[in-house]
Amino acid sequence: MTYDLVIGDRAYSSWSLRGWLFFDAFGIPVKLHRARLYTDELPTLLKQLHPARTAPTMRTPEGAVVPETIAIAEELATRHPEAGLWPRDPKARAIARAVSAEMHAGFTALRSHCPMNLRVSYTDCAPPDAVLADLARLDTIWTWARRETGSTTPWLCGDYSAADAMFAPVATRIATYNLPVTPAAMDYVTAHLAHPSFRRWRAMGMVDGADQDFYRRDYPTRPWPGPTPLPARAVDGTDTENSLCPYSGTPVTHALELDGRRFGFCNAFCRDKTVADPEAWPAFMAIYRS
To answer: GST N-terminal domain: from which residue to which, for each copy (predicted)?
Structure first.
């Protein structure tokens, strides 16, 4: 048996991003169940995981339903101490848990004015005073965490931890809405945008269903401020260098082109998530570099 995790749209569901990072960033296998937001899909799916009402919701191998991200992180940390979800040092672990709890419960102005949208970046969103206050508080606790733990990495408490996963959707909001933050805070945001697990999530989110109208804004746009993807494009046919999909190992049915070379995949989603950001996928890059 394995873990099950219910998620919403990858481009928009900030809580789902957190829950997924607890698995992917720490090497814990999980079976995903995706439901589109603002439809009947999510409540219908969650009927199988009573009493959950939201995404993400985890089901343990024994069948226990765990519907909150803080609870998911703590349960996985207990079951997989070797994965390193929380820092091993007691002081760093306490600080990581403290800032995670504040993130879980706070920053409502920022969340409301700037909902997560990984498909676009704006030049300005005219943040009101309450959002600016939330940004100032983020800078305060991020600076405090790094100072108190003596972190010499890009992360808050030393190695990447559950605390960083908790703040990943906030980092994306700063990137999406070009929010005014200090240089140190922007360095932290930049580290999130380049994190391998986040790049995979965003690549999937770019092709994971149609745009959601709720998240549309009329602000002027700019290029996404994260790493620039390699210029791949979807193409027709199955005349490719590889005969088996690099992810599933099954026969090729769809193809992309990159640098004049053609590579194959077992379905449109495998191909399209790779087109979105080829370097996010080690299995693809292994055949590309061969």
So the answer is: 12-78
Q: Are residues 110 and 188 part of one domain?
A: yes
Residues with Cβ within 8 Å of 215's Cβ and at least 6 positions away in sequence, in order, are 11, 12, 115, 117
Residue 207 located in a structural domain: no
Task: Extract the tokens encoding 144.
Answer: 């405090």
The pLDDT score that the predictor gives to residue 1 is 66
Taking alpha carbons only, the member of 171, 163, 221, 177 closest to residue 194 is 171
Phi-psi domain of 260 (left: phi exceeds 0; alpha: psi -120 through 50; beta: other): left
pLDDT tens sequence across 109-121:
999 999 999 999 9
Same domain, 194 and 159: yes
44 and 109 co-located in one domain: no
The count of structural domains within the chain is 3
Residues in the chain with pLDDT values less than 50: none
pLDDT attached to residue 61:
97
On whether both 160 and 94 belong to a single domain, the answer is yes
Strand-strand pairing, 254-258 and 233-235: antiparallel
Range of the domain at 44: 3-83
Task: Tell how strand 3-7 and strand 30-34 pair up.
Answer: parallel
pLDDT of residue 81: 97
